[in-house]
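User: What would this chain look like folded?
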Amino acid sequence: MSIGSMLYVRRSIVALLALAGLLLVASIALADNTGPPVITFRSDGGYVSGTQSLEAYVDGDMAYGVAMWSMDHDDDGSYQEMDDAGAFWAVVLDMRSYADGPHTLYVKAWNTTGVTAVASLDLDVDNHSPSVAILTGHGTAWGDLLFEGEAEDVYLNESAVYCLVDDDEVASKANAMTRAGDRFQVTLDTTLLDDGDHLLRVWAFDLWGNSNKSQAVNVFVSNAANLVFDTVNWQSTSVDVGEEAVAKVTVRNDGGTAASGFDVALVEGGKVRAKKVVNDPLGPGETVKVQVRWGLSKEGSREMTLRLDTENVVDESNEADNTWPETQTLDFKGGVPSPWAMLAVVAVVSVAALLARSRRR
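Assistant: Here's the prediction, encoded as structure tokens.
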């Protein structure tokens, strides 16, 4: 064989080997392209709210050059195209159009042979703070106060529901409420609060840190005694001279300490005209009935006010509510003469008549 022939054969063998290599590489590539695309989420799952960009990588053979997305439904009719962001695929969603709660984002892609790949991302949609309400009403409290309220949220953090006192967020973290059926409650030690008015609210968080505060309820803390008029009934306000006007009252202790030695008084122009002293201890929440009487020896009208503890014998949490808000006019009239007075008048008239007859004679 000539040298030229040998070179030709050698070149042919090299060409055949190169072609075989190319065919091998092509066959491997074709074999790879028959597999599904690989989808990897670039975005984290979990809590989402408001407007969110949800993103995913798609690697491998992709038919049509597009990835698709669907929310909560993995069927062909629900998928829509994602945006090509270059290195990844994305879809921008307004999560406010979805109900609070768990949702699933599906991403789907096809290769040239029709093999599909689907990946899912679990989302917790929460566009709202917890809904809160107070069940405890306005009132007076002493000692232990049971404070109750409601807190609702799909993702409520039940370990972060508090009784917020006077909007002090730091101190109120100690007032954690616990679930009791359909409500939350906590027992407050009011002795740790100053006597006086306090604002209480329910303050609740969800798992993502969103929080909400309820409207406030006013609670008057009164660990000292607090004497108030419960009822006032004037039995008589228009009487004859020499008789007595009578006020029947009920006094209540709205404080946490018993009270005694206080008076219930009729006051005119700052001067006490009559009073009744209550010496028996009046305990927290208890009431006592008292009658106060006063009379005049001459005709006239007087404007009277009812007051409690005029000598400040009792140390009270609120000294400003010891006066009944309505004044009362007491009328004292001339009256009807007694039978003896009538006899005296008759006697005088009779004597005068006899004297007149004697003079005529």
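The longest helix spans residues 3-33. If you want, I can go into more detail on any region.
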